[in-house]
Protein 1
Amino acid sequence: MTLCRVVRPCYQILKREKSISSLSDYRDRSFYKYFIDIQTRWRDNDIYGHVNNVVYGEWIDTIVNKYLIERCSLEPLQSPSIGFVVSSYCQYFSPTSYPSIISAGLLIKKIGKSSVDYQVGIFEDNQALKAAAVGGFTHVFVDRATRRPRPIDGQFRVQLASILNEIEPK
């Protein structure tokens, strides 16, 4: 009984910790369904000689938005729905640095009624089979005018589902 009073309030935190630590399971390139290459820039490096953590967030945002625009026909300035980021994360496994080409891979972990969980693997050079970092975020799609959640439907949902990863890592 006492254990329940201690564990229950921390359950969501413990559950989240498990999901974050399992990101290392998603380091394999084979899990990702859509890729783009990104050239690192001199200014991406920090004083320690590797890409600064803020740049990883830019890469993650870039691949998600490129996919939404190219494959889901999202028009950021005109579409009736817009995506709000409600949570984000990134776990780093090995450093990347300029000059190199980053291959970012995208998969969808979950599609809800109005939300999407994206995951991105950051691979240094095209030969890398293990991600240097794994990150992502959750979008909640809302009506542009009212800012209230708006269901994802039609071709938009179909295109998102085309990169849904339903395979759990071993």
Protein 2
Amino acid sequence: MEKLKYDIKSALFGVAVGDALGVPVEFKSRENILKNPVTDMIGYGTYNLPPGTFSDDSSMTFCLAEALTHDFDLNQIAQNFVKWYHENFWAARGEVFDIGIATREAINKIAQGKKPEFAGSTDASSNGNGSLMRILPLLFYIKDFPISERYEITKKVSSITHGHIRSVISCFYYLEFAKEILLGKNKFEIYQKLQTEIPEFLNSLSIDQHEISFFNRLLKDDISELAEHEISSSGYVLHSLEASIWCLLTTDNYKDATLKAVNLGEDTDTTSAITGGLAGLLYGFDTIPENWVEQLVRREDIQDLAERLAKKNHSS
């Protein structure tokens, strides 16, 4: 129970602290940030909000975690997203200040009665990082299930806002990586293991080879050998996934991984949140700089959520 509680706390704070680091410089170009790199938790900037303010990435992560403190229910997860967008549920400072287009459209459809698993667009142009950025808490529900079940549940939870296969595979890869971290594996071992396991599994589902080929930099190459200029950090799901794995593999602690993600520019909060989730799990909550955690808004609420999620997962 104690390890589970610690892992959940590491994951939730890992996402939120990474997110808050990136919020003040969101949308700034890499070249612009390079003139004055982010080296610490700062505030204001893009949204003019105090240091430690997390964005939609963390709010939606917490909405998912909140739903998972009860029995798994896709509708409850979706309704929590509606409650966040319309009633500021789990918003950092009482108001929503950032939301992706595809996410907003899906939430509005759900609010009008659309079934959650069909709310997210299945269009190839709707592959923003909106489901990847919030998916991590699902790990603690699916980690002991067989791979086919892990995939199916991940697909459903992604599809609430992002139903295209590319978003689904991105979430699946990310959670498989996180699952291996939980088992205590070395990050490079995990990277290599997934290069065999993920394609084998996806091929068993007869998924379009062309779609799988989008993941070649992760599944066939060694992404850690790429130079920074070869890594993109836009809001496209594949860019976010590649950037987060690259940041994780090319640093050796939480602080450097998340700062590297922020300093890539563009979708800074999300790249750093996605990186921070894995880095939090890999290195542990105690390695997240204390002054960053202390500045994080709603940290007692996040701690409480972690404890409730651990209790549910321990008992079920």
Protein 3
Amino acid sequence: MSNTATDSALRVCAGTATAGPVRELLPARTVQLGASTEVRRLLPSLDRRMVGAWCFVDHYGPDDIADEPGMQVAPHPHVGLQTVSWLLDGEVHHRDSLGGDVLVRPGELALMTAGAGIAHSEQSPDPHAPVLHGAQLWIALPDADRVTAPRFEHHLDLPVVTDRGLRATVLLGELGGAFSPGRLYSPLVGVDIALDAGSDVRIPLEPDFEHAVLTVSGAPDIDGELDPGTFCYLGCGRSELRLRAGTDSRMLLLGGVPFAEEIVMWWNFVGSSGEEVAAARADWQAELAGSGGNRFGAVCGYDGPALAAPELPATPLRPRGRTARNA
């Protein structure tokens, strides 16, 4: 999924996590994605730009698209990150410049490692299901792996942990001895947790990780109820998490070792410097103009033009702190 904002605002992340357990509600920004999909952008925010290596979180839906085209995101580039597409309802047709061409459905992991460079598109198929609901997540690659070869993984079967009224699907990393097959470059975890009404359970956490939860439906109780669409940062130092729910509820748990490296995130690129990001933009624009290079490649099968990169901001692209307090 592309960051389609055209204001070319600079998003930068670096530094250390909040020490100790906290309960910090982070506000969402509403962003238009293409012509027909509106998303709630939760990371990066003004107060917190990363959770572990997770550096971007969009939540969209549930949207009634029975009479709408649904998601329509034209081919666009990525470098220096991994994208995680996670559907709760509906389906999305993924195409990429490596030749990937798959239909992603709920419960399936679409994990794309951009590395040195890749391009992809995302569309609701025609015909498509009447409801679209999901999350798009990005993971910053560490400096040692930022220019790794691009790859795309589509995992249909993921491990599931169950308890009294709990069903936890492990997207990435490990929970309770269940390991995701997705390839990672930083220690982190991503879990889709469904809670039945009346449940009261505890799940193990890595105390060295910082964690956050995104409520996608219902009103789970984590030191207090959380409304749908809420993104709650939990800090570090928790060895377990108590989960309760008065109604059927669902959330995404994200966590990881605090990402110590300073990075620049601008548009769809993550880099270690402004020069690195500017070079990626120049390479993409050159490919669009047909004036040289094949860093990103063509996305075959998409009917329409690719997205042009916005203009670079007037202010220098430079790494800063990962929160407002240490930016």
